[in-house]
Amino acid sequence: MGDPGPERRGLSRPAVVGIVVACCAVAGLIGGAVLSGGDDKKEDPVTPGSSESATSASKAPTSQAPQVDPAEQQAKDLDALLAESNNSRSAVITAVNEISSCKNLDGAAKSLRDAANQRNDLVTRLGELSVDKLPDHAKLTSALNEAWKSSASADNHYAAWADQVAGKGGCKKGRAKVTNERQAGDRESGKATDAKKRAAELWNAIAREYDLTERQNNEL
């Protein structure tokens, strides 16, 4: 067919390689521009110190109030009441001795009635305490109520005895006459002692459990 002529000759091999390299370089630049353009979205602003605050908050120890045993608290409340239960004992003993020897009859009667009021106040305050978590709480409160009510009754009978002794024929040779009021007072006092013994036994078991004050029956 003959020589194709110079128009139809292909490019030399080095020229082709150079064109390919140039095209790859351009494509790389275009791709980089596209990728960088996709990150134009702005990041959310960060409040200075917010990350530190969150980290500190997560690391901060959680403080919890110490758990209080409800039975222990009830025992302490009752212990405080029992500490007052013996306040009038010495006054009652003194008053009864004075009546027996016909001395200070009016003052003795007043001291005894004051003591009776104090016992009744203990009964009222005991009824206002919560003791349902304590062991044998029903038996304990029953014994204390009986003890204090019987003591109050005995005090009032002894006060009435003082009134009798102050009357005509109440004293003989410096000794008070034993009357029905004196006998009633002795009976109620005996009941109170029995109830206090039961109460002391029940209370002391609780006192040992919670390291509180143990009490003898004559301290109630």
Summary of the model, kept short:
With 220 residues, the chain is mainly α.
Poorly predicted regions are 1-9, 23-27, 29-36, 38-42
Estimated radius of gyration? 49 Å
The helix-and-strand class reads: mainly alpha
Q: Report the total helices.
A: 7
User: How much β-strand is present in the residues?
Assistant: under 5%
Spatial gap, N to C terminus? 141 Å
Find the count of extended strands (DSSP E, 2+ residues): 2
Approximate helicity band: 55-70%
Shape: elongated
Which whole number gives the mean pLDDT? 83
Describe the main β-sheet briefly.
Answer: 2 strands, antiparallel
User: Strand order within the widest sheet?
Assistant: 1-2
Taken in chain order, the helices and strands follow as HHHHHHEEH
Describe this structure in words.
By secondary structure, this protein is mainly alpha-helical. The chain has a domain of 150 residues. Helices cover 65% and strands 2% of the residues. Strands 1-2 form a two-stranded antiparallel ribbon. A hairpin with a 2-residue loop joins strand 1 and strand 2. Helix 6 packs antiparallel against helix 7. The longest helix has 30 residues. The termini are far apart. 24% of the residues are buried. The N terminus is likely disordered.
